[in-house]
Amino acid sequence: MIVQACLNGARPADYHPQLPLTIETMVRDALACIRAGASEIHVHPRDTDGNECLSAVDDLMIAIRRACPGTLVGVSTGEWIELDREATRRKIAAWRVCPDYASVNLSEPDAPAIMSLLRNVGVGVEAGLASVADAERFVALPDCQRVHRVLIEIEEQNAREAADVSEQIYETLVREGIHRPVLLHGFDATVWQFIEQARDRLWSTRIGFEDTRLRADGRPAGSNAELVADAVHLMHSIPV
């Protein structure tokens, strides 16, 4: 049961003035978030123009591990990053300083192959499930029990519908006997409700500019570390 800091995601540069897009700012935020109580870091590496880029992983991993030794660090493998299946596979295979884990979206056609490739290069898999269809596809995979963790990551913005989808995903995992750690998170309007749900279910969660720029009380966040501090406080609070 941890709080993972998700530093930037696919957000554009104008999403927030403190959105970290360079190695220096990502390292700065990673360190600040660990000091604020985060246990892990999830980050989308960027090239020198600020664009997401899988080739930027090596340099970023070296820098973050120098600043935050012992902290687990993960990245995304989203198909939108390279927009080319073969380029995605080639760049992952070329990593020389690998992240500890990488998220794979089960909604993407090449997900099973990317999961296998990650295991072959020694990287843990976070299986991203955004729908019941994703969950059903995941549990049918022969290696589904070998993932690092399951991400239940809901983009639906209606609170009730989002909660229903997350519960149906989890019920699918339970029905098929999948016993892997769960990290639950929402997006924009549902972020804080899912942090509370994660707390109540004793699951892990995440927070950062990838998911929201608003603090738990609705005020704009000044930094990723502020968001992390709010989430850590909420996760350690006693449910009313």
TrEMBL record:
InterPro entries: Aldolase_TIM, BKACE. GO terms for molecular function: 3-keto-5-aminohexanoate cleavage activity. It comes from the Bacteria. Pfam families: BKACE. PANTHER family: 3-KETO-5-AMINOHEXANOATE CLEAVAGE ENZYME-RELATED (PTHR37418), 3-KETO-5-AMINOHEXANOATE CLEAVAGE PROTEIN (PTHR37418:SF1). This is 3-keto-5-aminohexanoate cleavage protein. It comes from Brytella acorum.
